Amino acid sequence: MFSEVQLQTPCSAEDIEQHSRRWEGKSCTLAGIRILQRTTRGRALGLFSLIDSLWPPLVPLKVPGQSQDCEAIKTKLPPPSFCYILMAQPDPRHVNVGEEGQISNLYLPPTVHSLKEILQVGDFNQRCSFWAQVIYRRLQVKCSVSAGQREFWLFVTDFTLQSGAKGNCGTPKTIPVYFASSCVLDKKVMEALTNACHCVIFFKDALRGNGRIICVERTVLSLQKPLLYTAAEADFSEMTSPVKLDELDSTTQANSICTTRGTISGVNESTAFSWPTCNRCSNGKLEQHPQNRGSYYCSLCSQTVILPVLKMQLEVFLHCPSRPHCTVKVKLLQKTISSVLMSSSSEDGSYEVKSVLGKEVGLLNCYVQSVTSHPSCVGLEEIALLEAGRN
After folding, report:
1. In Å, what is the CA distance from 222 to each residue of 43, 156, 192, 313, 384?
2. Do the domains at 111-231 and 257-344+355-382 have one common CATH topology?
3. φ/ψ of residue 291, rounded to 5
4. How confident is the model over 128-152, as pLDDT tens digits?
5. Fewer CB within 10 Å: C terminus or N terminus of the chain?
6. Considering only CA atoms, which of 356, 383, 131, 355 is closest in space to residue 255?
7. Count of other CB atoms within 10 angstroms of residue 91
8. At a CB cut-off of 8 Å and minimum separation 6, what does 42 contact?
9. Domain 111-231 in CATH: superfamily?
């Protein structure tokens, strides 16, 4: 029988790490246990996907009326269909580790696989553990999600994806991992994800299903090497060579990242605009100076901005050799816009569309916003990958 024990007490990231090192894999006794509810597979799919990853147990099951010498007992029985949710004393000091802290023979450590192995496994709702390098993150905008419950995508890779070529099997060089609001991040991991450098993270018990990997409740993210694990061909080291992305082609899907190059064949004039920003703090909401209409005032710096930095938004249509019969629209980054418009302005400082037509751009790192087949069109947004380096 499986049960989930909840300790409803505020814990810091250091406390959680300390408790994990003390309790994981150990036989413990808990004080003040009471039953909160009895739940079933249909009502708690996430919990039972974790239970399924622990089945069958490593030791033979004790079945009344049957011989305990039969090794087949532990493989013939189906996994449990119900689970008790228990409440224990909120003070972690009431959790006592028995048998001098030895690892229990009931404990089944997570099997750590490479990303390539995980992609090759059947598409079922199952848990998976892996070690991956985060190279890009993207916030998922949802009106119903509060600021403290942000949902976002992490685009990750590892040595097994980077070393192979994208062939008929369709193995990409990067994969998206969805971080749901039900998954809680500790402070150290969040700091690593908000850093400008890419980081290596251990994903424990993420959910693989419906064509994607999801971090949900009971998924653990860590910057440290797991305490107890069984490794297949997982590579725990950070890659030193530059990360490679798949080039845009006919197999590229929405919500992925890729590289592309091409010739500018058109400009989306309806979305093109420019705005002045502060040359000190990059504030893009400057005000007209109340006393001097020819200059701006920055409320953040509380100073007059005499020489503002002009920033622009520009979407262009590309003719891409990898998608010759497809309309490819790309929203460019400021650096690429400046390169495209360099020495293309007229005497009054404006730009003519014809001045940028035919210019070559690329390689561009892009996020794939949309892919349609009728008509054949791909919407891209140029992105900046996280810089190489350790946090």
Report:
1. 28, 15, 10, 37, 24
2. yes
3. -105, -20
4. 999 999 999 998 755 444 444 568 9
5. N
6. 383
7. 11
8. none
9. Nucleic acid-binding proteins (2.40.50.140)
Return d(Cα 109, Cα 101) in angstroms, integer.
Answer: 16
Q: Report the candidate in 244, 242, 261, 248 with the shortest Cα–Cα distance to residue 173.
A: 244
**What CA–CA distances, in Å, run from 157 to 62, 131, 144, 242?**
43, 9, 30, 12
Sheet with 34-40: list strands edge to edge.
3-6, 82-87, 34-40
- Whole-model pTM: value is 0.84
Write out the two tokens for 357: 């037509």
Domain map (residue ranges) of the chain: 3-101, 111-231, 257-344+355-382
- HSE (side-chain half, CA atoms, 13 Å) at 325: 4
Q: How far apart are CA 128 and CA 346, in angstroms?
A: 57
Place of tokens 């409740």: 217
Q: What is the pLDDT of residue 333?
A: 95
76-127: pLDDT as tens digits: 678 899 999 999 877 777 788 887 778 888 888 888 888 998 988 766 778 9
Contacts of 161 (CB under 8 A, 6+ apart): 115, 116, 171, 172, 173, 174, 175
Residue partners of 215: CB distance under 8 A and separation at least 6? 177, 178, 179, 180, 183, 203, 206, 207, 221
Q: Are the C-beta atoms of 286 and 277 separated by less than 8 Å?
A: yes
The CATH code for residues 257-344+355-382 is: 2.40.50.140
